[in-house]
Amino acid sequence: MKITVIIPAYNEEKNIEGVIKGVKRIMKRVETVVVNDGSSDRTEEKALRAGATVVNHVFNMGYGVALQTGYKYALRRGADFIVQMDGDGQHRPEDLPGLLKPVVKGKVDLAIGSRFLGRCSYKIPLVRRLGMRLFGKFASVITKRKVTDPTSGFQAMNRKVLEFFTKDHYPVDYPDADVLILLYLQGFKTVEVPVTMEANVEGKSMHHGILKPMYYIFKMTLSIFMTFIRDKIIEQ
Amino acid sequence: MTQKQTVFSLIVGFVIFFFVLNLIRKRKLREEYSWLWFLMAIIVFILISWYGLLEKISTLIGARVVTSALFIFAILFLIALSIQFSVEISELSRKVKNLSQELSIQKAKKRKSRKK
Fold it and tell me: In Å, how far is A154's CA from the nearest CA of chain B?
């Protein structure tokens, strides 16, 4: 059974070493793959020093593309299961076994770490919180199952989902609630698992500023709508 | 349409037509991206040589003068062109993404095999 941990990282020289060492401490026999998304700092050097495999992007392409590169790499390396976690120290390696458990046991295809079922040690900005709630509701209604944390990037999945995510229909531009809906419509089983999320050291977020959260809300609404009608068309 | 307007439109149509043709000849523009430009040039020729059609179209869309109708069609053409560019850019972005990912993976695999 081969497990790969994928960590997308962009300018994470301060945190990446700790994250990799944490993963290795908790799970000894996993391959840790850091997808260095065109960092301008020493992320690559630090990740290599901590014993990770580093896949370097030539230039910065964003979180979703970095994740997909990790999926593609893991698939080619023959991974049976993968876990994706952030490189900023937000996700705790201690939660890895619990997240993997339902997937490895074959109960579900994808497990999502939810900070709202577990514990969140920091205050989430208002716009982001509203977005989470709105798209969580959307996803809950469509998937007929309570989704508390649609934006969580802490996930474990089996090879079936991994294969699905390497295709072009994977939304590389902010993969979020739209992915959960896409998986549901394709017949994959998902579950939320309680995890603890820490505030990242730098305190930065993908959705900071004013324009980015607004674009995020627009993109997610459109993407969910498209995911829904695309699948309906296929069904017909 | 006055004679001056006809001559001017004809010159514009010809210039665009031959300019696009020359760009393709020099391989600066690929055939697949040229069809919208040719279509525009052909429409300009048709409307100049068939003034009655231009008048009918103007009446149909509620334009009081034929020049307004021409402006509307010019704007519509630019919109169509922008959409075509957006589609092409999306497709190119997808290809660049896949290509970069492939390059990154191959480099990582090479480094791994060298370590062994």
Answer: 22
ipTM: 0.79
Structure tokens at A199: 């505030």
Collapsed DSSP state (helix, strand, coil) of residue B33: helix
> Is the minimum CB–CB distance between B101 and chain A shorter than 8 Å?
yes
pLDDT averaged over 10-residue windows placed end to end, chain A, 236 residues: 95 94 93 96 94 95 95 95 94 94 96 85 73 84 87 93 92 84 90 86 57 80 81 49
Answer yes or no: pTM beyond 0.80.
yes
Which residues 51-70 of A have a C-beta within 8 angstroms of B?
53-59, 61, 65, 68-69
Q: Which of A203, A198, A161, A202 is nearest to A182 (CA)?
A: A161
Residue A103 to residue A157: CA distance in whole angstroms: 6
Mutation target for B interface from A43, A55, A77, A167: give the one with most B CBs within 10 A.
Answer: A55
